[in-house]
Amino acid sequence: MSVSKKPVQLDKDGLDPNRWRTLFVVAISQLMVVLDSSIVNIAIPSAKADLGITDANQQWVITAYTLAFGSLLLIGGRIGDFMGRKKIFIIGLAGFAAASALGGVAANQELLFASRALQGVFGALLAPAALAIISVTFTVPAERAKAFGVVGAISGGGAAIGLILGGTLTEYFSWRWCLGVNVPIAVFAGLMAFFYVRESKAGGEHSYDIPGVITATAGLFSLTYGFNEAATKGWSSQSTITFLVVAVLLLVSFVVIEAKVSNPMMPLRVVTERNRGGSYLGSLIVGAGLFSMFLFLGLYLQVVLGYSPLKSGFAFLPFTAGIIVFAGIASQLLPKFGPRPLMVPGLVFAGIGLLMLTLITPETSYVTHVLPSLLIMSSGMALVFIPLTSTSLHGVSNQDTGVASAMINTSQQVGGSLGTALLNTVAATAATNYIAANQSMGEKVQAFGITHGFTVAFTVSAGLLFAGAIVLFFFINVGKDSLVETEGVSVH
């Protein structure tokens, strides 16, 4: 694909005059990718009925996407660094649109699963390129904080918007539009990107680290698949153990290779700098902990309280609103106070919000027991998302911007997969034990047992968020003044 290479005309302050248009384009693409993680969940029951998908195979609507996306993010980030982030961003948008269209017209389950995998492939090109573009476009600290604030708000609140949009499209149109809606969004964003986003590339050698690519991609695939097997078959199943052991061996091999080759795919300098390394570890823990809120609270609203999918989506709207409001506040506070004074209290607040959810029962109401915790969690997580994105790119050279951006997505993806497997097991075990011990409750025991499983999972999730706060407290030491230091950017 040919992308304009005219020199960028900077304004009198040496800034890109199209930087806010660039942010708008990246925000649209980010929203599309985040929406896609939840909007399709609502479509699964209708798609199952339409295409004859079995219960055993329904997981592949989600898993086909997460496997491709999670395992290819690192190489996707490197391709953007080497080939040009604008070019790869546009290719990612075009491919995502085509894959979405294919899924929207799928005549059988195999085509639907294949289209979801293709979405993951192009999403792995798109997501790191989007963050890298923000990093190289915004060079003024206050402006960069605002830009990351927008991206953070979308990342935090987009899933809830996806539930509402998915419920609306499925209920009033067709499940197919949950995929088809991506097409006009991607086409519009691609056209805007062509005219307003500037091209940037990494300097230096552009050779690919093939052994690193193979071991990282296969290792992340095996890890993600192993977590998925744990969620569906249990931690002790042969396939779970096999995939997790293979993943460890491959990822250890990857680290050894990266330490020795001259042009590594993921230079160890990216993760060994304490602020970036702490950000990735914190992101993994937060992803594992926060996932339960959407997963189990959504199940509680629908299965226990009897909400429709659309009503459940709207029930999450206060969380989205809270993220958007407090993201604006966080972006104002970040240049003044630095990241740690925001992130640590933010995770503590979010953990308290999750602990409040442990008080729900089949007889409690949304307004008294769910709504307050959503507002507290959203205020806390907004204080985390924006600084975390920024510290994950702290001091990174232009050579490594794409792969550093990919690492934050990879850690979130792996954390989400781990959270699914771990907390599903915790919730199921707790529910089974409760039901077995309380048969005297009669018909009520089922609903109370399921809810008990959710509350135990919320307790573990809160513990993970508190652990994340401890990690960030000890790892993050960057001050407000040096938060946005980056090395020179090559612009074409």
From TrEMBL:
This is Major facilitator superfamily protein. It comes from Candidatus Planktophila lacus. The keyword Cytoplasm does not apply. Keywords: Cell membrane, Membrane, Transmembrane, Transmembrane helix, Transport. InterPro entries: EmrB-like, MFS, MFS_dom, MFS_trans_sf. It is a multi-pass membrane protein. Its main location: membrane. Residues 22-480 form the Major facilitator superfamily (MFS) profile domain. PANTHER family: BLR6921 PROTEIN, MAJOR FACILITATOR SUPERFAMILY MULTIDRUG TRANSPORTER MFSC. It is found in: Cell membrane. One of its GO terms (molecular function) is transmembrane transporter activity.
